[in-house]
Amino acid sequence: MDVTISPSRVSGGAQAPPSKSYTHRAILAAGYADGALVYDALWSADTRATAGAVTAFGGDVNRDVDDGHLTVDGFGGRPEVPADVIDCDNSGTTMRLVTATSALVDGTTVLTGDASLRSRPQGPLLEAIRDLGGEAKSTRGNGQAPLVVTGPVSGGSVSIPGDVSSQYISALLMAGAVTDEGIELELETQLKSAPYVDVTIEVLADFGVDAEHTEEGFAVAGGQSYDPTDGEYHVPGDFSSISYLLAAGAVAGDETVRVEGAYPSAQGDSAIVDILERMGAEIDWHQEDGVIEISRSDLEGIEVSVEDTPDLLPTIATLGAVADGDTHITNAEHVRFKETDRVSAMADELGRMGVETTEERESLTIHGDDSHLSGAAVDGRGDHRIVMSLAIAALVADGETTIAGSEHVDVSFPGFFEMIGELGVDLERGD
Q: Which residues does 3-phosphoshikimate bind (predicted)?
């Protein structure tokens, strides 16, 4: 589905959508428990995949259509052998988290996904499961899905690289809590996207599970039970999604844009507030109230590392296209292994809009002084974050911009186009 966006100004208030990262973990944690009520959950294509996996393991997830909360009946730390293949769709988080769950099953689990997910690396997690005594393989022998996992593992010590995906560590910590022995993880390389492991540890604590940093990496004791206080969990707002709303205000604000539901948490992507401040944006974060206010500003290019915040690269690249001078995004190699190669995708698609960039293996530089945003036909590459970032660029481009694949925002921000429309964006969605 295409969306066509005309140059627009934005103003008014918006409610931050719920966090996708927290929702994934909360649904699975409730599955590991006897059950829980999960409030303010994001119900998107990705999180529905995790809910489907919980159901496949013997749990059940039901959504209240009136208020959106999820009632999860869990499998009490003892997942059953799935009756069918688990389809993780396009969700890398689902596949990594539930691959570790599969290692607890007294039997065999098969996991697959769409073409994009079947191209993403899973090898280090499969090797870790084998080192823990399970069986785990890629059917094609290339470390990519479809995956076949046979358990159960009882825990132990294992080493794993930290520079491919932090989701491997999160997956093993969540599963390790209900093993007999627990799991100790030694990192072979420096951990990238570290805040996402902190998110996992935060969610585990809210479900009554202790996990910790160690000198070598991370550890979680075995024999624990998932049991949230009062049997419920509340999902915070999502800073990855908030980044697009703040970027819209910074580049196209007619008056102040106010984002509510932006409370502090372990989310690394809250760094977008600091990044915008460094670029010269007029932005105020009232943390106790969970409110961020931002106005259109003259932005300056900066250097910023996305080592711990890979999901922000598309947003930062778009801001750089509007800013004066160069915006140099570093430590970005792992961003190439998302739904698409986001480094190349942003370079190519912004290039169609008249933006000059320099792409290297681990970095992307946007040359704002040499760029002039013009409306164009661009491709969202089947990636929700590429689609939303290009939509922000379209607000200040000369002429109309048509983005192919607008439906992919359903992965993390199903109401994105409706929300920016309410803020004043002139857009038209096709069939």
A: 20-21, 25, 165-167, 193, 311, 338
